[in-house]
Amino acid sequence: MSSIQGLNVVIDLSHFNTVTSFEDVKTAGITGVIHKATQAINWADPTYASRKQQAQAAGIWWGAYHFGTNADGAAQAQYFLSTVNPGPNDLLALDFEENPQSQMTIAQAEAFVTEIFNQTGRYPGFYSDALAGKMLGSNVSAVLANCWFWRAQYGSSSPSVPPTWSNWTMWQYTSSGTVSGISGTVDRDTFNGSSDGLSRLWGYAT
């Protein structure tokens, strides 16, 4: 744990995870949860709404992510927002990862984050495994550069960052972490900064 860079107080969840107690999750030192909300333009995570209520009741900061697919980017953003109905303290993110069945393109991702900005006044986080670096190469996406970068990379001492971003903001460093209040393994994420910085990212401070 000590070798992991960043503030190790965030997890991300989906319906695949079994949550037994958000109070225990909070007691275990988790500040924020980012939960899968939607995928494509017609699927919503069935556990999203109830878990949001439970987590916030336990005093946990809440976030939502959309799993991008090969469909109209703006339409995906609109579906995501209509499902999440985000308030100012709901952290938002796009999940852009390897998906052989229905691969989102860079152009679709750009359309997604632009629509989020147009509707909310803020850009979401951009989560990716090695895919973003592979697809962007040495190119810089001026649109995606507006997003804070959330890197999924396991088994390394620090995450690699494509040229579009100057640094990483969140790092998903394992998919096999453990946290009290969650049965089985869970994705663990660190924040590249201080508690005050995390509070600003989440909209609780300016």
Write a compact overview of the structure shown.
This protein is α/β, with parallel strands linked by helices.
Q: How is this structure best described in words?
A:
With 206 residues, this protein is α/β, with parallel strands linked by helices. Helix content is 27%, strand content 28%. The chain has helices at residues 22-27, 48-57, 73-84, 106-120, 131-136, 195-201, and strands at residues 7-13, 18-19, 32-39, 43-44, 61-67, 90-96, 125-128, 149-152, 170-177, 182-183, 186-191. It has an 8-stranded mixed beta barrel, surrounded by 4 helices. A two-stranded antiparallel sheet has the order 2-10. β3 and β4 (43-44) form a beta hairpin. α3 packs across α4 (106-120). The longest helix has 15 residues, at 106-120. It starts with 6 loop residues before the first strand and ends in a 5-residue tail after the last helix.
Average pLDDT rating = 96
Structural class: alpha/beta
The number of helices is 6
What is the percent of helical residues? 25-40%
Shape verdict: globular
- Biggest sheet, strands in spatial order? 1-3-5-6-7-8-9-11
Q: Over all CA atoms, what is the radius of gyration?
A: 16 Å
Largest sheet: 8 strands, mixed, barrel
Separation of the first and last Cα atoms: 30 Å
Low-confidence runs of at least 5 consecutive residues: none
β-sheet strand percentage: 25-35%
Q: Can you count the beta strands?
A: 11
N-to-C SSE string, H for helix and E for strand: EEHEEHEHEHEHEEEEH
